[in-house]
Design the sequence.
């Protein structure tokens, strides 16, 4: 069931990304947000920040805008534009830290991602309330029954902006289901909260393991790893995403979590640098476990439309 959902997600996102970008949809968006600071990404990769002063030839193939930036005004043709977004909405990865979900909804930021090269992951949003994501590993040396798959469903029950300051607060509730090998099923219920700032987002997550098993045998090829993960154990997670200075494309991402608060050895720490625009995101970092173990991590995400 989980793998069927994964394949449907990949098909949905790839199919939608192949639909031509009709720039006429931008007209209403611009008119609904007058004098707002916007970020425009051109088809050649350039990114401009400024205010749209006027629209010309709206009903013509040569439709263009007058765009005011810090170095002056310029004319930009819609045929040259890949994406237009409000400055506050340019970060399309707000629904996650590195891989830990925040309370922010996915919304229209449907994505396909690749975690650690071996795990393919996809997600989509239903309005600004429900977020669904799923993934499966495709490790060449492992049998299909020994692969890893997971499904995560989250509902954002509160999403509120501050009245006097930039940012706001979101609260979410959800659950996930994972299979590590065919016979090892892990399920959790969780609640999380995210506090958004001008440049920094802070998230906290608490989760409980559900099910009936305490002992698992994780198998990779001929190697078997006995694993204890007590039922009804509580875990905690903390995450931070902060933008470097005023740049739009470089972030620091950090996570700290513990899968069982009664055991300090179940703690992990992650630090990464994220390079992104409104379409692509690449995370490069290090993960440390108290076992101890230290190894590099990478995560690539594509938000095609």
Sequence:
């Amino acid at each position: 069931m989980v793998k069927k959902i994964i394949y449907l997600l990949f098909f949905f996102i790839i199919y939608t990304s192949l639909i031509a970008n009709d720039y006429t949809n931008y007209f209403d968006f611009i008119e609904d947000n007058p004098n707002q600071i916007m970020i425009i990404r051109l088809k050649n990769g350039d990114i401009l920040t400024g205010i749209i002063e006027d629209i010309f030839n709206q009903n013509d193939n040569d439709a263009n805008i007058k765009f005011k930036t810090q170095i002056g005004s310029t004319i930009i043709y819609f045929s040259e534009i890949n994406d237009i977004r409000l400055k506050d909405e340019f970060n399309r990865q707000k629904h996650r830290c590195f891989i830990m979900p925040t309370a922010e909804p996915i919304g229209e930021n449907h994505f396909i991602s690749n975690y650690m090269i071996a795990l393919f992951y996809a997600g989509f949003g239903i309005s600004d309330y429900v977020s669904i994501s799923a993934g499966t590993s495709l490790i060449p040396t492992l049998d299909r029954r020994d692969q890893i798959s997971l499904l995560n469903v989250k509902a954002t029950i509160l999403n509120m902006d501050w009245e006097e300051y930039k940012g706001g607060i979101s609260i979410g509730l959800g659950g996930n289901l994972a299979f590590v090998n065919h016979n090892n099923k892990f399920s959790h219920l969780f609640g999380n909260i995210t506090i958004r700032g001008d440049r920094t987002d802070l998230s906290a997550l608490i989760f409980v393991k559900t099910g009936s098993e305490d002992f698992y045998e994780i198998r990779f090829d001929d190697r078997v790893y006995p694993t204890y993960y007590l039922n009804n154990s509580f875990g905690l997670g903390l995450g931070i995403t902060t933008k470097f200075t005023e740049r739009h494309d470089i972030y620091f991402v950090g996570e700290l979590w513990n899968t069982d608060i009664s055991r300090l050895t179940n703690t992990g720490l992650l630090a990464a640098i994220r390079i992104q625009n409104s379409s692509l995101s690449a995370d490069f970092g290090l993960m440390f476990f108290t076992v101890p173990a230290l190894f590099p991590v990478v995560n690539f995400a594509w938000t095609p439309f």
Remarks:
- The two ends are 27 Å apart (CA to CA).
- The first strand starts at residue 37 and ends at 42.
